[in-house]
Each structure stands twice: as C-alpha cells, then as structure tokens.
Write a structure and sequence with these properties.
- It is a single chain.
- This protein is α+β, with helices and mostly antiparallel strands.
- The chain has 3 domains: 120 residues, Trna Endonuclease, Chain: A, domain 1, CATH 3.40.1350; 70 residues, Arc Repressor Mutant, subunit A, CATH 1.10.10.10; 127 residues, no CATH class.
- The protein is 32% helix and 22% strand.
- It is built from 12 helices and 17 strands.
- The chain has a 7-stranded mixed sheet. A 5-stranded mixed sheet has the order 12-13-15-11-14, covered by helices on one side. The chain has a 3-stranded antiparallel sheet with strand order 8-10-9.
- Strand 5 and strand 6 form a beta hairpin.
- It is elongated, with a radius of gyration of 27 Å.
- The relative contact order is 0.09.
- The mean pLDDT is 94.
C-alpha cells in the first residue's frame, strides 16, 4: 500500500488477532462491536510472552495532520468505557505527534511501525524513527514558504479575521496578489496544522509562536540575480529617487531595516532590494563603487515576494522591510543580529496581542 491513499477501513483491516502493533505488543482479540457502537474498534492487546491483556478503544483517521490527530484523541476519549484506554490509529505518527500524545496520556500507533502505548502504572512502550510510507498530499504542500506564506504572515498581523475575503484583500493590499482560492488553501493548511481555527467564516489565530517558528523553519534567504554598489552624490534623497520610478518594486532589506526597529547599528552601505537594477541605478545616479566600505548603497535584485510584502513607509518615503522579514533575516545572521532578532520577534508577538 505504499504511497496509496488510505481509507479508515484500510487502517482498521490491520487490527486483527495476532497482528503486532509496536514490538512486543500484539493484538490478542478484536471485540465485536454492538449495534449503535460508534467506536472504530475495541481490542485487547498484550505482550507476546505474557498473559496480561489491556483493553483499548481505537479511533482511526485516514489523515495524519494535527487536526486529524486532535479529533481522533477527543473521539477515543469520549468512547472509552470502563477500564478501556483510548488509542488512535493513523497512517503515520511523527515524533512531534507522538510526543503530544504522550503528554496527553493517550496511546497511538501507525502503519509504519511508530507509536506510543501507555497503560498508567503498568506499561509504557515507545517507538519512533520509522519513515513515513504514506506521505499525504494536500491542496497546498507548504503554507510557510513562497507566495503562499504571505497568507501566514498576514494572519500574524492580528488575532481574528471576520471573513476569508477580508484576509485576501489585506494580502493583496500588502503587496501579494493571490486569488481567493489560493488564500483559502493556505488557510485550510494552517487549520490542519492547528495554527488557526475557522468557524462560521471567522479565522482566528491560535498559535502565533508556533506559526512564527514554522515560517522561520521554511524560510530561505532571497535569491539574488544581481547586485551593485553605488557612491551617491552628496545630499541625494535615495528614497525619493527610487519612489519616483513608476512600477519599480523596492524596499530596504530586512537586515538593513534593523535600524528602524532596534538600536542595532550596522556598518557598510544601506542594502536596498529592487526588481529592476538598471532603472533603480539610473534613478539614483552616482558612481559604481567596488569597495563596500566606500559605498553609500547596495542594490540587490530579487523577486522574492516576502522582501516587498507588508513594507512600512515612513514620512520620508523610506520603505522598510516588514518586521517579519527583518526578523527572518536577522535570525539567520551573526550573534549581534540574532540578539536584535529576539527584540523584533517580541515586537511581532506584542502586536498580535493576547
């Protein structure tokens, strides 16, 4: 069944007498369900070389997402009777999900050989590290990277969105044009990961810290297709010059935007991202400089969507990278930059609110 899309029936077909769950625990007996019983299965499990058995109520889910695991846990707990213990069965149980089950005192097994089985005061078995033989496909593979991650960034700007259309409009206004369908898929992926909840149209941010961490884990430094160091004529208003170029996308990089959000002092030229080197350099004038220490500005050519998303423009017309972009670039830097990144991260979380 490798790489096959599984149904709950496929999973439950593995729960038969004599089947091994996680070594050395085996299924001794699968009990017959009574009419009206909403459980997926009720089983007796025991160690291969011992007479003692423990009863479990099993809730199976064909998906392994955090949302599916959460739902299975709640259902298994609700259906446990008498001395029965709750257990979930999913195609793949990641170490993170297994650790969550252990914290909740709920057993869980998968079809790949991973699992955790807990009988309070009597038994604890854990096995992890087996590869995922059933990778899932979802409408959006990674909501934390690329253009789709702009939805995640916008979600971090406030706790609650009344409608999907409001969120999509905010994403577009902040500089990334995504269709309503694309925004919907990103929100669905965040919901499956228990980052947000969606109820009657409302979208509510549940886990801002975890969302920041997921964005950081998926983030990659913007790819550059060109750079140019310039020494500008005295008195040049670089922001006004760049702002005068119709259709030019530009923003101070996250690294250089640290001066707008923290007390971090950066040496060297101001780094500015642009999407058209020739037009940007032409507007600024000045002379090309080979030595960074003598340059006033460094133009960096990139099409990275996050670089130009949610920019903050001050009264002088300077377009600073968003706090999130600033934090992402700083946390990938040296020790001083990482310290400043912590300050920016705290600012982001304060703005989200309790």
């Amino acid at each position: 069944m490798k790489n096959k899309k599984l149904s709950e029936s496929d999973l439950l077909a593995r729960i038969v007498a004599g089947a091994e769950t996680i070594p050395p625990l085996v299924v001794r007996r699968r009990l017959e369900l009574q009419p009206g019983d909403r459980a997926d299965a009720r089983v007796e499990l025991g160690l291969a070389d011992a007479a003692t058995v423990w009863r479990f109520v099993v809730e199976a889910k064909a998906q392994s997402t955090p949302l599916a695991v959460q739902s299975a846990v709640a259902q298994a707990r609700a259906l446990a009777k008498g001395d029965e213990l709750p257990m979930i069965l999913v195609p793949y149980l990641s170490p993170e999900r297994a650790a969550g089950l252990e914290r909740e005192g709920v057993s869980g097994i998968d079809l790949c050989g991973n699992g955790v089985v807990i009988v309070p005061g009597q038994l604890y078995l854990s096995r992890s590290g087996q590869p995922n033989l059933y990778p899932e496909s979802r409408p959006l593979n990674n909501p934390y990277r690329g253009r789709s991650s702009m939805v995640a960034r916008m979600v971090l700007s406030r706790r609650r969105w009344e409608t999907l259309k409001d969120l999509a409009a905010a994403v577009a206004e902040a500089g990334c044009g995504l269709s309503l369908s694309q925004v919907s898929k990103a929100v669905q992926a965040l919901q499956e990961d228990l980052i947000v909840s969606k109820r009657e149209g409302d979208i509510t941010l549940l886990e801002p810290v975890r969302l920041l961490d997921r964005i950081a884990d998926a983030w990659r430094k913007p790819e550059l297709s060109g750079t140019r160091l310039l020494r500008l004529p005295p008195g040049t208003d670089w922001a006004r010059a760049l702002g005068s170029v119709s259709g030019l996308r530009w923003a101070v990089t996250g690294e250089s935007s640290a001066r707008n959000y923290t007390a971090l002092g950066e040496g060297g030229p101001l780094r500015v991202a642009v999407d058209d080197l020739a037009r940007a350099a032409g507007a600024l004038g000045g002379e090309e400089e080979a030595v960074p220490a003598f340059a006033d500005i460094e133009l960096r050519v990139t099409d990275d969507p996050g670089t130009y998303f949610q920019v903050e423009e001050d009264v002088a017309g300077r377009r600073w990278a968003s706090r999130i972009q600033c934090w992402l670039e700083l946390q990938a830097g040296d020790a001083r930059q990482q310290q400043a990144a912590g300050e920016v991260r705290a600012q982001i979380l304060r703005e989200v609110g309790p």
